[in-house]
Amino acid sequence: MKIHSPVVGFMNGLMVTIRSTLRRPVTAEYPAVEKRLALSNRYMGFPALTWDYDVEEPYCTGCMVCVRECPTQCMSAQMKDNPKHEKDLSRRRKIIESFEINLGRCILCGICVDVCNFDAIEMSHEYELSKYQRNANRVGLNQLLDMGVAYQNKLGWTPKQPQKNSGVPLPPKQSEDSS
Amino acid sequence: MQVHQQVSEHSDAIDLMVNMGPQHPSTHGVFRLVIWVDGERIVKVEPHIGYLHRGSEKICESEQYNQIVTLFDRLDYVGNLNSELAFCLAVEKLTETAVPERAEYIRVILCELNRIASHMLFYGVYGLDAGATTPMLYGFRERERVQELFESVTGARMMHNYIRIGGVKEDVPDDFHKNVLALLDHLKGGVDECDSLLSQNEMFLARTKGVGIINGEDALDYGVTGPALRASGVIEDVRVTDPYSIYDRFDFGIPVGSNGDCWDRYYVRVEEMRESIKIVEQAISNIPKGEISAKVRRIIRPPAGEVFVRTESPRGDLGVFLVSDGSDKPYRVKVRPPSFANLQALEHMLEDTYIADAVLVLGSIDIIMGEVDR
């Protein structure tokens, strides 16, 4: 028995190798776009801002809740009065004026998405953002919206609370009541 | 590698001081081991840690409770979900939150799959430590399947931030049940394949049998926990001896070694993967429907007090000591990482072994430097 055991152990290992040799290779070749691994729908890439197509403005109102809850303090935001609200084109009184995320600092935890009350921020499927400068990943409002729109179009994204967060103005009677 | 010479205190011979690390591929992180050798034999070793120190415990004091979960992800970066669970259990114990059944089951399934992924990584790199390059490919292949499932459930492959205080972040996708069963089928074959590839290989046996022996008594004295302790013949597993979450409902065994050498520490982990598969099988067939999170406030303010919880992470007994002063940030968070305690026994294990075995003994206790240095 003692003489045979090394041979048996060796042969068992060799059989595994032979079996694997006959398998079809499953290598995904990263830089080639069509040969990459597919991302799952829930994949959390860098955060991006969503776009409300009904009234052609961002969902974000600049309420700052994501800025406060971010564990790495990688965001900053500013709000302004919404010009479309004055013309009765939108329900949102305030709208985002500037939004900056330092994606080099972001740790992709998804807390900003959880705390957002307006469905305004989502984890996009963007993950390739290598840059040559340390601060080159400080992205502004326009770039964040571009990322968000790409994500929306890819997944057919709809807001989780469409009734509450739609920007379509309410019927005149209610808006008089509220004003 | 730097080499210094010094005259040994205990003999006239000259001991060589060999500096292994901090940038050494087999230290599994940034870890420096100073070894004094007399010829080929190790006289004394001195571990130096702190190269990956990020002050996580101190940062915890300036973050809110639900933000700290992201920090615990980064402690044991191979068994993330187990670290998250330890912290969430601590806060839930302090706030006396009852976690819904479904959330508990999801947690157990994911944590056990995480344990398999972690042990698969160990299997791969341990083969590499012993000089066999092939097992790494097999280990990483199986781990990749688990990571794929994690990505479809949590949205991330490693830093999940999925287990939250009071439950889990969101419900599992619709095809979760089917995917887990398919994954288990695959893993059963995968573990057997890995086992027959390396475990009984004669060269591997020659390198690991009878190397780096520590007996159960010494291991307990050093505070060794987890697979490294069970390899020495001590039956101690927090999931069984002090059950947390819902582990008392499952029927699984504790693999125990007999010699406490490197091969036992390796094989206990292989067997543990099989036991984990059993747990996941039982959990997935009993998973109830319902809520996935208890009602918790967005900003959690636990009552003033202190709490300590132990969990069984893939590396051993992971403890979290939490002191709250009633505000939205903890007063103190102390982590009792298993890797750190296991590393203390390295000096004992390496006594009177050959210098060529230093890498094997270090690899067999499966340290994660993110957890050691915190």
Task: Walk me through the structure.
By secondary structure, chain A is α+β, with helices and mostly antiparallel strands. Chain A has one domain (41-168): Alpha-Beta Plaits (2-Layer Sandwich), CATH 3.30.70.3270. Helix content of chain A is 32%, strand content 16%. Chain A has 7 helices and 7 strands, in the order αβββαβαβαββααα. Chain A has a 3-stranded antiparallel β-sheet. Chain A has a two-stranded antiparallel ribbon with strand order 1-6. In chain A, strands 2-3 form a two-stranded antiparallel ribbon. In chain A, a hairpin with a 4-residue loop joins strand 2 and strand 3. Chain A is elongated. Chain B folds into 2 domains: 3-48, no CATH class; 56-373, Cytochrome-c3 Hydrogenase, chain B (Orthogonal Bundle). The model of chain B has no long low-confidence stretch (mean pLDDT 87). In chain B, a hairpin with a 2-residue loop joins strand 7 and strand 8. In chain B, helix 4 packs antiparallel against helix 5 (134-154), helix 4 (101-129) packs antiparallel against helix 11 (262-286) and helix 5 (134-154) packs antiparallel against helix 6. Chain B contains 15 helices and 9 strands. The interface between A and B is medium-sized, with 28 and 30 residues.
**Secondary-structure element string of chain B:** EEEEHHHHHEEHHHHHHEEEHHHH
Instruction: Give the uncertain stretches of chain B in residue-range form.
Output: none
CATH topology name of chain A, in short, is Alpha-Beta Plaits
Biggest interface reads: A-B, 28 and 30 residues
Helix/strand/pairing category of chain B: alpha+beta
The best one-word shape of chain A is elongated
CATH class of the largest domain in chain B: Mainly Alpha
Could you describe the largest sheet of chain A, including whether it forms a barrel? 3 strands, antiparallel
Mean pLDDT of chain A: 84
State the total count of DSSP E strands of chain A: 7
The N- to C-terminal Cα distance of chain A equals: 92 Å
